[in-house]
Amino acid sequence: MGAEVLSDSLDTKCKCHGVSGSCSVKTCWKGLPNLDEIASDLKSKYLAAIKVTHRLVGSRKQLIPKEMDVRPVKETDLVYLINSPDYCTPNLHLGSLGTQDRLVRSAGLDEAPRDQEPEQGGRHQTMDPEGINPALGPKG
Question: Is the pLDDT of residue 28 over 90?
């Protein structure tokens, strides 16, 4: 999906060369928009993703929306068959310990790393400068 979004977002850019602004030679190339535009397009597709199911049509499987009030699936839509697991809560069946009580670190370009709470809950924990959380041990 990402490669398709990149390919679809390519723009042709041209520059003229010549004496006194004449366009005796024209150079053109394909260029990408800035990363924010690409990321926004991908996020829009992700947020509009359609849950689908298989339906046999003759000998072929066809993807149809699971919900009846959703428009038919187009070739450019992002679709999924099953919901993604919730990695925020522990799930031993999936081998996920979850993110609750896990330290999340974030650093801006002009600031020292600081501790932040995970977006999906969990508690704020502080670390000493060595990166040791007294409750969890080194790099805990």
Answer: yes
Cβ proximity of 11 and 18 under 8 Å? no
| Cβ atoms of 64 and 81 closer than 8 Å | no
Is the pTM above the cut of 0.85?
no
Residue 20: strand, helix, or coil: helix
For 85-109, b/e burial (b = at least 16 CB within 10 A) is eeebeeeeeeeeebbeeebeeeeee
**For residues 24 and 15, is the Cβ–Cβ distance under 8 A?**
no
Query: Looking at residue 25, what DSSP letter applies?
Result: E
